[in-house]
Design a protein that fits this description.
Layout: H1 2-17, H2 22-41, H3 45-67, H4 72-77, H5 85-112, H6 115-135, H7 137-143
Amino acid sequence: MLVIASAAAIVAGWAIERRLAPMPLLAGLAALVFGTLTLVLHDKSFVKMKLTFVDGVLALLLFGGLLAGRQPLKSVLGATLTLPDQAWRTLTIRYGLFFAVCAVANEVVWRTQSDARWAMFRLVLLGAALLFSLAQTPYLMKHMPTPAEEPVTPEPPDPGF
């Protein structure tokens, strides 16, 4: 069911927006590939590997972007947040480390624990992701410009109608 839903979400995203958002595309393609492998090979290990793959790819993309002199997190979230480049860099490093730790932790847990413990770990990891993101709020607030610092764009002249 997840494989079908992922395919439908990717197609719907393209049909509605005429573009593919990077995060849903990565998650959707991973669900399609790993879900299909699970179904075809009758091996639930692929479902467990998907989390390692997605988190690992996210960590690599974030760190790779920094090494290439880019701000990958800014390119994804820059339309919603205004931050100085150094703050974007710090957030990118933090999220890159978070995703790398999640990938390693998932790999260790799924290979050493029962299916029930891995499922519980998966839920804990979801909560950890939420808490990690919330923990970034003070940093974001510290670096967001105040209304007095934001550039003011002049309004066009009134045509007099």
